Amino acid sequence: MPISPKTAMELLEGKRIEIAALSDLSKESRDVVALDQQSVGRLSRMDALQSQAMAKETERRRALALQKIEKAFERLESGDFGYCIECDAEIPLKRLEIDPTATLCVECAAKKEKAKK
């Protein structure tokens, strides 16, 4: 394994804590916008609704990131963590330090990105 299980767990847990903290901070902006026409103007309501929509999208992305972290924990338990799911090569330590949920080596990630274009 290219990275020790302890280091991998620390990286993944750190990422999980970071996402949870950000989620707690943005909870208020995801709350339902009250449409009290007496106290709030039309543009203010539109701004509030737009902010709420952006906050909900951000939370959706955080939920996806947490799913990726859980899948990485599963790969860690099965012994597959740190190996590319395409070619089975070791994923470089620096890549895993940047993104501990990475499932592709640099070469396979580049190929996938190139295929998107």
The end-to-end distance, rounded to whole angstroms, is 32 Å
Which spans of ≥5 residues are poorly predicted at pLDDT below 50?
none
What is the CATH-assigned architecture?
A: Up-down Bundle
The top level CATH class name = Mainly Alpha
Number of beta-strand segments: 0
- Fourth-tier CATH superfamily name: DksA, coiled-coil domain
- CA gyration radius, whole angstroms: 20 Å
Average of per-residue pLDDT values:
85
| Count of helical regions | 5
Strand residues, percent: under 5%
Please give the largest β-sheet.
none
How many structural domains in the coordinates? 1
Secondary-structure-based class equals mainly alpha
Protein name: Transcriptional regulator, TraR/DksA family
Keywords: Metal-binding, Zinc, Zinc-finger
Pfam families: zf-dskA_traR
GO molecular function: zinc ion binding
Itemize the secondary structure elements and their pairings.
Blueprint: H1 5-25, H2 27-30, H3 42-78, H4 93-98, H5 106-116
Helix pairs in contact: 1-3
